[in-house]
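Box 3.1 A note on notation
Throughout this textbook, protein chains are presented in two layers. The first layer is the amino acid sequence; the second is a token string describing backbone geometry. Keep the layers aligned when reading.
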Amino acid sequence: MPTLANTISGKVVDNKGKPVADATIKLNKSTVVVSDQSGVFTFDAVKLGQSEIHVSADSYSHVTQKVTVGEQGITDLNVTLSPSVMEVIDVYATPLHGSTIESALPINVLAGDELALKQAATLGETLKHEVGIHSTYFGPNSSSPIIRGLDGPRVLITQNGLDVGDVSRVGPDHVVSTETATATQVEVLRGPATLFYGSGAIGGVVNVVDTRVPTSTDTQFDYRYAYNSVSDGNEGSFNFNTGTGNFAFHADGYIRDTDDYEIPTEEGVLEGSSSKADGFTIGSSYLLDNGFVGFSYGKMNNTYGIPGHGHGDDDHDDHSDDHDDDHDDGHDEHEEESVFADMKQTRFQVLSELTFDESFINRMAAKFAYTDYQHVEIEDGEVGTTFKNEAYEARVDLHHHEINGFKGAWTLHYKSSDFEAIGEEAFTAPSKTTSLALAWLEEKHLRDDVLLQLGARVESVDIKSTDLSDIPNFDFTPLSASVGFVWDYQQGYNLGLSMSLSQRAPSAGELYANGPHIGTSTYEVGAIYDVEMHGDHVDIELNGVKPKVETAKNIDLTWRKFEGDFGFVISGFYNQIDNYYYLENTGLYADGGHDHHEEGAIQDEEHGEGLPIYAYRQADVTLKGFESEFIYKVNDALKTSVFADYIHATFDDNVQGKYLPRIPPMRTGLVFDYQQDRFDSRLSITRYFDQDNVGEFETTTSGYTLVDLNVNYYLEGYGNDLVLFAKGENLLDEEARVHSSFLKEVAPLPGRNFVLGVRGSF
């Protein structure tokens, strides 16, 4: 059969000349086809001139190839893929989509079976096994990711590239309002990502990707159910996608119900650790010849305990009360818990992507999200604090045709957050934060083996108090710029170098805090206040000093080997941050009670055995460290890997001791993967070392070893990919206390846990 003009046809083969089936071939990062069983693929109606083809397949390195299409098209394009022991996955968190081995900065991606294996109730616990990533671990319900020692307002959490819009960056006891049970992949940009997302991403970005706005009419139903023994917990989730004609439809949902979990200590159970969560999302898209436009609507509910009985007048170490071993009614309306939170969120999202072959702008990606978030913290049946956040976000990425070898995009980005904390124990004033930014990203192959990546961003951030007239308003103009190189110096090897200057505007909480924080059992004071002891009173007064933006100067070097039976990724980083915001322990105390003053100028509290006063201050700090992972494929059935990471974080001027508080300890691990046709298993052994590099007033933390075992059994004849799975977690029943947790003294990790479940699709 003759080949039509303006078509591209070819074949994908491996390095032995054998066809590679089910390879994904992208033309100009928009049109997608899949190779057949013979490795053959075809693109029809391709425009004349130069195009770019990106080819990817499981267990192979990706290949990007430029082609020139003439009047007769291309009929014999052969693409050779080399086997890779590393998992190579395309990343959606950056406007210039690439794979995990094509970036100057190191990137983690969890997808497919790996995501299913590591899925946990919180985002922090899902990601904590990844190299360079730890968890804040504020109990099993409120754990956020720590990236290279940075968390909170320095690590942005996004859903399909847009801020989740919750208040998890305000305090570690606040849950992250995104769900990995219905996600297709989770991406982590380690290191400054301010160019893509703004000043809230000075430490990195976690992007949760799902199909709530569908881009295909293919019908598929995915489901999962699991039971765990340590908290008598049940969880289930589903994803459904279908379509007809040009319309695609999506629905997903999840439910989770757990009791207080068992711990390997005298107490036996961690009170206040139960939870009950559920949520759903529906979405639809209209598919066009050159893209799509779609929307989604979702709701989340989460009622969860806050361990530690977090109030100044409570005995934080008293957990000796009798507790039913069977967890009977362990969280029925949380009657037996002194502190719990009730979170609700509604989120509306619009996504669109269009390609334009004949214009200077060849692709446009537009995103919009509206989020209505609320959670209340309840103590002894009384509402202590209500947190509300109404957020709007809009983003447009405009990609241009190649100019003198440069491919790039401009980004226009707007965000608005209207935050309010209400109640006797509200610790920060209501505020509104708006930002508007313009970013520019480019990349160019200086030669076939050297890729240049560069960009810049300018941002305007306005923060104003909406309640207290005497509280000043602030405006900041953070600037960011970066340059990076990826050098493929040898087949299957590359070096990545990234140098960046990133600035971050402070969050409203870091500026305006002035009250007791029930979750962390502290009295927090913002950077705009001075705290002084006068007689037997503590005076908290406005200091009249304008806070400064944080400025991070970061160098990152990454060495990769990604082809053959042996691979590795080794990264080293050096991050010097000027004007770093941190919570200083003043050594003073405040009463547990608190009323916001209308003028907000002076806050007096009796000195006594109340809540310790922590004040936001600024200092210069340095964080440096390394991350490494080595993978060896012993044979077709057995693969082993070794990993390690380390962070050294210090104040440059020893303003409050030498070391930053709550920095994760050094960690090493050994993993064995065994796979047969219908069976696979994984044994992982992870050693967390002692953490002796502690901040002032901070205690050291002993090391521990975690041993986990996972087993999957694949059944045939019951739809596609029906899997029975079992897990054994913390098999040694170690008493493991997380140094980065505010609750390490009262909330160790769960004891020995067994999980049974089923997942599949049809």
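The first strand starts at residue 8 and ends at 14. Residues 8-83 form a domain with the Immunoglobulin-like fold (CATH 2.60.40.1120).
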